[in-house]
UniProtKB/TrEMBL annotation, chain A:
Keywords: Ribonucleoprotein, Ribosomal protein. Pfam families: Ribosomal_S7. This is Small ribosomal subunit protein uS7 domain-containing protein. The keyword Lyase does not apply. Transmembrane segments: none annotated. Residues 72-222 form the Small ribosomal subunit protein uS7 domain. GO terms for cellular component: ribonucleoprotein complex; ribosome. The keyword Ribonucleoprotein applies. Belongs to the universal ribosomal protein uS7 family. It comes from the Eukaryota.
Automatic annotation (TrEMBL), chain B:
It comes from Hypothenemus hampei (Coffee berry borer). This is Small ribosomal subunit protein mS29. It comes from the Eukaryota. The keyword Ribonucleoprotein applies. Keywords: Mitochondrion, Ribonucleoprotein, Ribosomal protein, Transit peptide. One of its GO terms (cellular component) is mitochondrion. It is found in: Mitochondrion.
Automatic annotation (TrEMBL), chain C:
This is Small ribosomal subunit protein mS35 mitochondrial conserved domain-containing protein. Residues 169-241 form the Small ribosomal subunit protein mS35 mitochondrial conserved domain.
Length: 230, 387, 325
């Protein structure tokens, strides 16, 4: 009996991982040493020109995602925003919403453009919806964030510097939440989001206000800053 | 290896690439703006000829308000008019072909019927709008139905007809159409010669006397909504008589004509029973107008897949859409196909968009969009949303 | 070294003592005196080998066959292969690579397959000669296939095989197949249409052949009678005109006949004269018929549009004039 038990033990101890040569990268299909794909024609051309392409030719490369295209309208930040907007994997819906809001942005700006009387005023109006979107995201990025730290049984909201990635996420998420704050029956999401985008690109609106509120709170909690270390 | 990945990530700085492309293409755009080869200054469709093909002409604002105040232009196009601050139509071959035929027709012969057909979103309704503009400027009496589907698929109300047993009236829609007819033909209806040929008894007390003008008949239909459907049928007969008498020249333009022959409507009688179009009072009047037994007029209709139920949208060709009865009703008609954009037309519409600041001047955008839209104007309009 | 040996010894001691002892004494035992234990007390006796009785085999008959013998009487009927009777050095079968196929003796491969050793050309010739007295000569006038088909349009097929089973009656023998050209019946259009509807898929459009198979009766004679009855009945039924046949409407037509449709009356009403008098009507009627018969496609629509334009004397789309009228 004892022999059988010991047999089982050894079998359980035999993990397949210890024997396989491939290093698993979590749940990812591709191992961690695979490089990101170069899917833009321009990037490929640049690599070819500089001769660096020979470095990549035999590198194991991840397959490009469905959304990563070499289209002239492709914008990685916009596609990231689409992914943040997406709920329950409904990518088509999310993309449609983003496209429609960009259309609305164009309409808002063009209306202003046609109202202008002089060429100087017209030149000031930005008509590229993507640049407006980028500006809006940039303007919504906070510089600090609050982190709860427990000291002596009390939670203190401690201001800490924020990473670039987190700041961008917060800015985009605030934009999405601002788009959702509207009359449910009368206003469509894309209309509201377009308004917020235009406002944020002008450094006004809900998102910028929210950022400023966060900054204010950080300022108020400046005294707790040392809790970050001690 | 990590080094390589890091390098790659650094390389993909997105803003930069967009701006570079923009800068490269702006120079080109400036050059094109000066030439404006995509526009034509000729705003009268009568003077359009093959030289103006694939160019855009703008409909004057006052013409637009008269013709399309109560519908007639596709919804997305109507929003673009507001954004672009002008109404521009492209001179395309189907409309030009029909206008050319309208010029040469012998109006003493029976009515000639034209059928515009084509795949979804290729511009049948806008071709019809072009023809209507031509008719308006040449003093035709315009009988224009903006979209038959609105009656058969989305009626505002329905009630049993008082004059005909087993028929359904769509009175609110009918009254709205009478208003549309009145605004479109306001200029012609001032002519005192347009009189009705007989006395009409609406009820015991209400009558419209003989020799009262068409305007009075229409006004009666609008004010007494109960009789609006019936009024349209009488109006149709009167228009036919007047045209035969040579008092006016008529253009009948009906968008989504095949809805008059598609049995599955969304008009329901009592007990949720589907009413086929031949039991709707409005149908009779417009089928009467599309017959060949009168003269001094022309008929242009479009057949469209969108006007029938989604499960039956298998072909865009006229025989399928009209069915046997519809085909025999129109035969012999002249089929005119509306196709997607050619390369030249695509180029000019893209130039127009750029001039109107609707799209940004990226490099290589024209080829990409032509490929993606497959030359279909509606898809193109959908695709350029975020450019 | 010393350390290692001590370690070894210690480890050996840990193992069971008896095993250790057995191991140490193994070389001292006597192996040659080992005796098996006879529990049942069976007497020891040596086995005597059973002698195999050999049957005497005669030399094959082929050795004694004359060169000019009458083969038809050696092998008169169908029979499975026998190596001693067939004087041929036949080989059949598969062995390993390079070796020749096995010879005819005890060769199952040869016995499995049916042979035609009883049907050699001289034997057939002899049999035909014997049958000749019962046959009549082929009519000289029927020298070509056309003539045969003309004078004998009906072709009846049945099979005459012996069945290789408990009974020699072939179940297929009773089936009778009748085949003839539809043209040979000389039917008019209406009768032909009715005949085809009655026959259904028994008619082959490409070869113009009607094939009727009868297998419902137990005897061939009965099936044959039935087939002939069917042919007669079909012929007369298709010639007959029933009162309800007059009710055939346009929807029941097999093809679009322009002269019977609304299209014709429409055109006549427009021009207010008989359709024969209208110029360009042939092109139009052809176009409409093609449109309906061939189905709707870009080509037929285009043709129809052109025909209507010529009929109504309208300009073609290519002729858009450059001068406004």
């Amino acid at each position: 009996m004892a022999g059988i038990n010991s047999l089982f033990k050894t079998k359980i101890l035999l993990k397949p991982n210890t024997f396989s040569a491939i290093v698993q990268n979590g749940m990812a299909i591709f191992p961690s040493y695979y490089i990101e794909p170069i899917y833009k024609k321009e990037d490929q051309e640049a690599l070819k020109k500089s001769g660096e392409i020979s470095e990549y030719v035999h590198m194991p490369t991840k397959a490009a995602l469905n959304s990563q295209t070499c289209s002239v309208s492709y914008d990685p930040i916009l596609s990231l925003f689409t992914n943040y907007l997406m709920r329950k994997g409904q990518k088509e819906l999310a993309r449609n919403l983003v496209e429609r809001s960009l259309e609305q942005v164009k309409r808002i700006q063009l209306e202003r453009y046609h109202k202008c009387n002089s060429d100087e005023e017209r030149a000031k109006i930005e008509l590229n919806p993507k640049i407006i979107f980028h500006r809006a995201v940039e303007n919504g990025k906070p510089l600090l964030q609050l982190m709860p730290v427990k000291r002596g049984g009390v939670k203190y909201q401690v201001p800490v510097p924020i990473s670039e990635y987190k700041a961008r996420f917060l800015s985009m998420n605030w934009l999405i939440e601002a788009g959702r704050e509207k009359d449910r029956t009368k206003v469509r999401f894309w209309t509201q989001l377009a308004r917020e985008l235009v406002d944020a690109s002008n450094n006004t609106g809900k998102v910028v206000r929210r950022k400023q509120e966060l900054h204010k709170q950080c300022e108020a909690n400046k005294a707790y800053a040392h809790y970050r270390w001690s | 290896m990590l080094n390589v990945t890091a390098k790659l990530l650094l390389r993909s700085t997105f803003h930069k690439s967009i701006q570079i492309r923009l800068v490269a293409a702006t120079a080109e755009a400036h050059h094109e703006q000066i030439l404006q080869s995509f526009r034509t200054p000729v705003t009268n469709p009568t003077e359009h000829n093959s030289d103006h093909l694939a160019r855009l002409y703008s409909i004057p604002k006052e013409d637009k308000t008269v013709l399309f105040q109560h519908g007639g232009l596709p919804k997305i196009f109507a929003t673009h008019i507001k954004t672009f601050n002008e109404t521009c139509l492209m001179v395309r071959e189907p409309a030009l072909d029909i206008i050319n035929c309208l010029k040469t027709i012998d109006y003493n012969k029976p009515v000639v019927r034209f059928v515009l057909y084509g795949q979804k979103g290729t511009g049948k309704s806008l071709s019809l709008a072009h023809i209507i503009h031509y008719a308006y400027l040449n003093d035709y009496l315009i009988v224009h139905v903006p979209w038959v589907g609105n009656w058969m698929r989305r009626p505002k109300d329905n009630s049993n007809s008082e004059t005909k047993q087993g028929f359904m009236d769509l009175n609110i829609d009918a009254a709205a159409w009478l208003l549309h007819f009145k605004t479109q033909n306001a200029k012609l209806l001032k002519n005192p010669d347009l009189k009705i040929s007989r006395e009409i008894h609406w009820t015991k007390r209400e009558t419209t006397p003989k020799d009262s003008t068409l305007t009075e008949l229409i006004e009666h239909g609008i004010n007494r909504i109960r009789f609006a459907s019936n009024c349209i049928n009488i109006l149709a007969e009167e228009i036919k008589l007047l045209s035969c008498a040579g008092l006016c020249k008529t253009l009948v333009a009906i968008d989504g004509f095949n809805a008059f022959f598609y049995p599955k409507t969304r008009v329901f009688a009592d007990r949720r029973e589907i009413v086929p179009p031949n039991r709707i009072t409005l149908t009779e009047g417009f089928l009467n107008l599309t017959k060949f037994d009168w003269k001094n007029a022309a008929v242009v209709v479009t057949v469209d897949e969108l006007v029938i139920a989604a499960e039956d949208q298998t072909s865009h060709l006229p025989r399928y859409l009209l069915g046997k009865t519809g085909f025999e009703h129109l035969d012999p008609f002249i089929p005119v196909e509306v196709t997607g954009f050619s390369k030249k037309e695509h180029q000019s519409i893209m130039d127009y968009f750029r001039e109107r600041k609707w799209i940004q001047p990226y490099q290589g955008i024209d080829e990409e969009l032509y490929f993606l839209s497959n030359g279909n104007p509606f898809y193109l309009l959908d695709l350029v949303k975020s450019y | 070294m010393l350390n290692l040996t001590r370690n070894l010894e210690l480890s050996f001691r840990k193992i069971d003592k008896p095993l250790y002892k057995a191991y140490c004494n193994a070389s001292q035992g006597k192996h040659d005196e080992f005796k098996a234990l006879n529990i049942r007390n069976v007497k020891d006796h040596s086995h005597s080998k059973r002698s195999v009785k050999k049957t005497q085999v005669l030399p094959p008959r082929t050795n004694q066959m004359a060169v000019d013998q009458d083969w038809g009487s050696v092998w008169p009927g169908p029979r499975s292969f026998h190596p001693a009777t067939v004087p041929l050095p036949i080989r059949q079968g598969y062995t390993e690579k390079g070796a020749p196929p096995p010879d005819k003796y005890a060769n199952a491969e040869l016995m499995k397959i049916p042979n035609f050793l009883h049907l050699t050309p001289p034997v057939i010739k002899r049999q035909c000669e014997a049958l000749k007295q019962f046959c009549t000569p082929w009519p000289k006038a029927l020298d070509t296939m056309e003539k045969i088909n003309k004078h004998f349009p009906i072709e009846v097929t049945s099979s005459d095989y012996c069945y290789s089973g408990p009974s020699i009656r072939d179940p297929m023998a009773r089936i009778v197949t009748l085949r003839f050209n539809l043209k040979s019946l000389n039917l008019d259009d209406r009768a032909k249409d009715k005949f085809l509807r009655l026959v259904g898929d028994r008619y082959n459009k490409e070869t113009d052949l009607v094939t009727i198979v009868a297998d419902r009766c137990p005897l061939r004679k009965q099936n044959m009678d039935y087939v002939m009855y069917l042919l007669t009945a079909l012929y007369h039924e298709s010639k007959k005109i029933e009162p309800w046949e007059e009710l055939k409407s346009q929807a029941d037509m097999e093809y679009y006949d322009w002269t019977k449709h609304a299209s014709k009356t429409n055109v006549e009403d427009i021009f207010k004269c008989k359709f024969e008098e209208i110029p360009g009507i042939d092109k139009f009627s052809d176009a409409v018929s093609e449109y309906m018969n061939e189905g709707e496609n870009e080509y037929t629509i285009k043709k129809y549009g052109e025909a209507v334009r010529t009929l109504l004397q309208l300009p073609f789309s290519k002729e858009i004039t450059n001068k406004p009228l």
